[in-house]
Amino acid sequence: MTSLRDETVTLLQQLIRAETVNDGALDSGNEWRAAAVIEEFFAGSGVELARVEPFPGRVSVVARLAGSDPAAESLALVGHTDVVPAKASDWVHPPHSGELVDGEVWGRGAVDMLFLTASYAVIFKRLATSGFAPTGDLVFAAVADEEQGSRAGVGWFSEHDWATIAADNVLTEWGGARLGGIGSTAITVGVGEKGAAPRRIVVRGDAAHASAPWGRSNAAVTLAKVIDRLQAGAPKPRISEQWLDTLAALDLPAELSTRLAHPDTIDEAIDELSAHPELGELAPFVHAWTHTTVAVTVVDAGSKVNVIPDSGSISLDIRVLPGVTEDDVEAHLAAVAAEFPGLVNVEGEWFSAANESPTTTRLYGQIEEALAEFVPGAKPAPIVGVGGSDARFYRLHGANAFGFGILSSELTFSVARNRFHSANERLDLESIDLTVRALDHVVRGFLSA
User: Fold this and answer.
1) Over the stretch 334-343, which tens digit does the pLDDT of each residue have?
2) Measuring CA to CA, which residue among 256, 291, 255 is closest to residue 271?
3) Which of 79, 171, 186, 198 is most buried by its number of CB atoms within 10 A?
4) In angstroms, rounded to a whole number, what is the distance separating the alpha carbons of residues 385 and 354?
5) SS3 376
């Protein structure tokens, strides 16, 4: 029988070659190609796949293995099949070739997240065809459109057909990297993700000829002052139990660890961490995990070199921590606007709260057991993702959702992050082997009587 690893590698290569590129347009993605690959993979196995196509070409496939106990907790393995665009000229190996070179599978989606989607399919098929009888339902879902907000994927299911993919517990992306230097035993487990509150600040000024600027209210100058104020008055850090658990898993000098655990000293400690020869690349993420962040992303003012601008705007990407409310965001920006009376307005109302799953659940305990089984001395490092994933929809429906995997000792968090959406996206065979075997261990353990 083909090994779990080799079967996963073959399916991963086929999924990469499907070229399911999601450029943001509703008619992009073409996840029907990945669906066809997965349907062929399950052909003749006896597994029934539900094919769901809410928009032309945006196909998700779902299978459910019924449990023996209706009262038992169910588990879903949820992976997306779309990938972000790739500029072929930037790649050493063609981005949709799925080439295996020196023990690494190259291609767009190798890391994010086709290797996990392939792993889920392989595990589900093995269990479904081996006579395994789960106590609770086991769900496999290969879904569309995660890279553009899930409007044609889990987001659509959430609004229109939740029963098809529903589960009490979920395993998905954002876990498995070594948090720290090469050989670290602190392994990330995704337990939540930050929320978002994008806003736009609009500034008014006085239009005038630029040859006589004195006394004029220049919108561009006001914008610069607002940006300085936003940078200087960033939201204060929040030290959560989740961050303390992550910090405990890291092998940091005791004095630095102590300072990173306290709101009064963490900012200076992050500066110190950034200079660390091995852990410095973690500093931006440590900051993001402990702060609600306000990033200035688009600045617009003026239309002609000899005209003082009478208006301008700043776009803000605001990512909020668990526990931060919409009122908190509004109060923070209102305080900034108040320093520029009559000149500044804040626009935008959309708010998505952060979400988080408890680490006291039975599934998380199974994850801890698997980490200990496959990595001697492993310590789970629970992290809150700074971006978005399909896990958030499951948490909104009351499910526990975790990002889980085990990557090779050389594939640290920083290295893995740098491969996301880059022209160097590739994954080594050891990471695939560790992940698929650990996932198999977790699923069997969780769903066994």
Assistant:
1) 999 999 999 9
2) 256
3) 171
4) 10
5) coil
Q: How far is CA 191 from CA 98, 140, 354, in A?
A: 30, 20, 11
Residue 189 bridge partners (DSSP): 382
pLDDT digits (tens, 9 = 90+) for 329-366: 999 999 999 999 999 999 999 999 999 999 999 999 99
Task: For the chain, give the longest Cα–Cα distance.
Answer: 84
Alpha-carbon span 160 to 10, nearest angstrom: 34
- Strand 169-172 with 199-204, pairing: unpaired
pLDDT (tens digit, 9 = 90+) per residue, 369-388?
Answer: 999 999 999 999 999 988 88
Question: What stretches of 35-147 adopt beta strand conformation (E)?
Answer: 50-55, 58-65, 75-80, 100-101, 104-106, 138-143
d(CA 215, CA 251): 57
In three-state secondary structure terms, 349 is: coil
* Three-point CA angle 162, 421, 350, nearest 5°: 50
Question: Which H/E stretch holds residue 250?
Answer: none
Handedness of CA 278, 283, 289, 290 (dihedral sign): positive
The two structure tokens encoding residue 251: 């092998």
What token pair was written down for 336? 């900034």
Q: Distances in Å between the alpha carbon of 428 and those of 43, 139, 261, 380, 400?
A: 28, 27, 34, 21, 29
